[in-house]
Amino acid sequence: xxxxxxxxxxxxxxxxxxxxxxxxxxxxxxxxxxxxxxxxxxxxxxxxxxxxxxxxxxxxxxxxxxxxxxxxxxxxxxxxxxxxxxxxxxxxxxxxxxxxxxxxxxxxxxxxxxxxxxxxxxxxxxxxxxxxxxxxxxxxxxxxxxxxxxxxxxxxxxxxxxxxxxxxxxxxxxxxxxxxxxxxxxxxxxxxxxxxxxxxxxxxxxxxxxxxxxxxxxxxxxxxxxxxxxxxxxxxxxxxxxxxxxxxxxxxxxxxxxxxxxxxxxxxxxxxxxxxxxxxxxxxxxxxxxxxxxxxxxxxxxxxxxxxxxxxxxxxxxxxxxxxxxxxxxxxxxxxxxxxxxxxxxxxxxxxxxxxxxxxxxxxxxxxxxxx
Length: 372
Ligand code: 8DG
Ligand code: MN
Ligand code: MN
Known about the structure:
This protein is an alpha+beta fold. Helix content is 42%, strand content 13%.
């Protein structure tokens, strides 16, 4: 006879990553890896909307407590469009997606992926080089028309080291080095690990730290002093320091991709093997006693510390959805500097991350639950 479809399970999963607890344990990697290739391919082709849709879908799958084994299991999940469902179904049936395989073997995708893996090379530069007919690093380095900036020169110089993942033990060793520098300069400064390692990741592409001082304004001079000290120690391989352009009266930015205005620096440091408890994560057959590591430092004023810590802890998808949630569900604007209530026309102060979640009416999420 005529059968009615079974009712969709009431979805208890939010469309916002900031309302889903996502640990580093991803049971759906086979799907999320495929979706992230699709997202990246869209990014290379400047299709931002589709890119975001694939990233949102991947993020929802990362939050699931179990692997998806049948397409029906995805019924009622938010952010999964027709295209994503087709990819999931194909992987369930064949073990892989033909569309993803095609992208992975595409010359343009491969070349842009290679070029953007260099520190200082974004999609725009990669595209420019590709359009010149360049396909390899040796093509780029031999091309007289290509002028590398200082960041890109260091990116090529240390490519082998900084394209290799940083381990937790290496992150800890760097934490000790930076902590020692901070102590020597300003004993009452506050230093914390942020980024992926704060979220409990085992490996990262860099190590991120946040530092502040109780004395208002002192935080603006601490980074140049840390850099100076590391230079004297002979461990500074590259440094790009950006002074603060922070303006207290500015409303939080609507644009997610806008960088924050705090004093910060992007570094490449020399890490000695004997400083790392578990040894260096060096390439096989590489007997060097040191490796180069990418390190980011940000120094917000103390009264913005909670906002900066929340912003720099990530993940990027978690941050995007926090801001989207604030705007869409609470009529508030959130960024790395502040939280602003649009209808009340007032700033909401916070000294801890918990304060910010509370202002937003969100359950608190621990850093290791923010791996969206
Ligand atoms: P990974 O390094 O292990 O790959 O992961 P991650 O630690 O999550 O990524 P990241 O690229 O180091 O970024 C960490 C967080 O920092 C991320 O949520 C974005 C945030 N961030 C800002 N401002 C800036 C900025 O100006 N530059 C960079 N590179 N990251 C920033 O909020
Ligand atoms: Mn990081
Ligand atoms: Mn970083």
